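retry 2 of 3: previous attempt timed out while embedding adenosine monophosphate. Reduced batch size to 1 and resubmitted. Inputs unchanged:
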Amino acid sequence: MIVILLGPPGAGKGTQAEAISKSLNVPHVSTGDIFRANLEHGTALGLEAKKFMDRGELVPDALVVKLVADRLSKPDAASGALLDGFPRTTAQAQALSDILAAQGKKVDVCLLLEVPDADLVARLSGRRICRSCGGSSHVVYSPTKKENACDKCGGEIYQRDDDKPATIQSRLDVYHKQTKPLVEWYRGQGNLRAIDGSAAPGVVGAAITKALSE
Ligand code: AMP
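retry 2 succeeded.
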């Protein structure tokens, strides 16, 4: 099963992804996480991606598409994948459909998490990420028990450079301009399921489970 998690930055895609990938038994493929892991390891790909990420811009399609094509060719993705943060442009959506068609597959469901922009700014500016497990917390909505330590693994938490106020607005602009057209793209294909992402994580998770079972 190929499932896409679509939605603006801060909509809760990463938060929901773990449970969805477990319940569908498919790997969670987050292009943002892959870029950040590459950056942590100082790879050429990570350093190239950082130039765009720091400005809140999208990494060029060719780079992202190659990365996803490689990832989907791995044995653990043979039965499907949960794509989080990809595709983000119509060119990427077309490339994905070509990659999948070559494997006799297609996108089964595109889950759209909808959250108003004002809420996204508050969510993103207070978000903190664990350097070890990638889990997220929020300084106001879900603070960690110990300051600067992840509740799950004790790892050091930090603020992503692109979650700083100067970059947040450009990421939202990029979403509206370059990614939002995908809503109509997948609606046209009949596989869009819109979910109210402004509810509490548990409520959103339940709505996703229901949408996937339909
Ligand atoms: P995310 O963690 O999904 O918010 O992604 C963080 C950043 O990584 C984005 O703001 C982009 O700069 C880059 N990125 C992640 N996924 C993509 C993609 N599919 N296309 C282009 N850039 C991406």
